[in-house]
Amino acid sequence: MQQNEMHKQRDGMFEEFMDVTLQLSEEELQAIHGLIPMTQELFDRCAGKCEEIGGVRQLEELIREFPELYRVYREKEITA
């Protein structure tokens, strides 16, 4: 039973990965992977798309990697 849960979790992670990968532009993916600089504009687009599609793991990773950009993003969301 424990192995079945691990498979479900792995499948969910892969599904989320594919959802995020298919929704983000090439430029956004390059910024996430450090191939180009992550700007506030790119961060805002990536975070917004992750929130829309439920890309929780990717959003958490973005927050960990770019906490200063996330603070600005949240401030914009709160005041909007």
> Main sheet, how many strands, which sense, barrel?
none
Order of helices and strands: HHHHH
Strand content: under 5%
Residue stretches low in confidence (pLDDT < 50, at least 5 long) are: none
Produce the secondary structure layout.
Elements: H1 2-23, H2 26-32, H3 40-53, H4 56-65, H5 67-79
Short description:
With 80 residues, the protein is mainly alpha-helical. It contains five helices and no strands. The protein is 82% helix and 0% strand.
Provide an overview of this structure.
The chain is mainly α. The chain has one domain (2-79). It has helices at residues 2-23, 26-32, 40-53, 56-65, 67-79. It is globular and about 45 Å long.
Throw out a few tags for this protein:
mainly alpha, 0% strand
